[in-house]
Amino acid sequence: MTRKEQKEERRKAILMTALNLFVEQGYYETKITDIAAAVQMSTGLMFHYFESKEELLVELVKMGAAGTKSATPPGEVPPDIYLTGFLKQLFAYANEQPWVFNMFVLMGQARRNGMPEEARNIARSVSSIEEFAELIKAGQEMGIFREGDALAMSRCFWSTVQGNMEEMAMNRAMKAPDPEWIVAMLRK
After folding, report:
1. Alpha carbon of 27 to those of 23, 50, 131: distances in Å?
2. Which residue from 103, 105, 93 is spatially nearest to 16, judged by alpha carbons?
3. CB under 8 Å to 174, separation ≥6 — which residues?
4. Which domain holds residue 63?
5. Whole-prediction pTM value?
């Protein structure tokens, strides 16, 4: 492995460790020394990779934002089939990559008042709620989904997903719900 690859591996380890600690202990309760100790490096070396704890948070939120932007619904697949498949893939990927559960928790936390402004702004700049509301409207027009405020229905859908992801982050033994149960909330 080259030095560049080693440095990138170390950087990823720092990010994943910070993600875990921010979720387990809270952003403000986690000290940069906690992260350095968990990665088994000196605090001084840690600052070689990230200038501050806030920079670490911002980098993590950028990763979460990039993941959120990848959830763009296609137009060709019926909305209920798309949502069911989307949730199956999301839950399966999160089970393979448990950090995804923590990312959902962190992104939820980053949107709240009191978090560093740059991270908060990035977290609030991405939302699949509006895009999925359009998908729900399409499903309503096709007679697949119940009538109602599509934006509110999308919020309920995403709140359910967020809540389940947070529960699975805290309880790794918890199994993901059947995606059909979540999509059934929308169906007629």
Report:
1. 7, 15, 30
2. 103
3. 167, 168
4. 53-184
5. 0.85
Q: CB–CB of 78/33 below 8 Å?
A: no
- Per-residue model confidence (pLDDT) at position 126: 87
Residue 74: Cβ within 10 Å count = 8
Please give the tally of structural domains in the chain.
1
**Per-residue model confidence (pLDDT) at position 162:** 93
Residue 173 is classified by DSSP as T
pLDDT(29) > 90: yes
CATH code, domain carrying 72: 1.10.357.10
Half-sphere exposure (CA, 13 Å, Cβ side) for 164? 17
- Bridge partners for 59 per DSSP: none
Residue 132: CB atoms within 10 A of its CB come to 26
Calculate the alpha carbon distances from 109 to 23, 94, 117 in Å: 9, 18, 12
- 173 touches 113 (CB < 8 A): no
Give per-residue pLDDT as tens, 45-63.
999 999 999 999 999 999 9
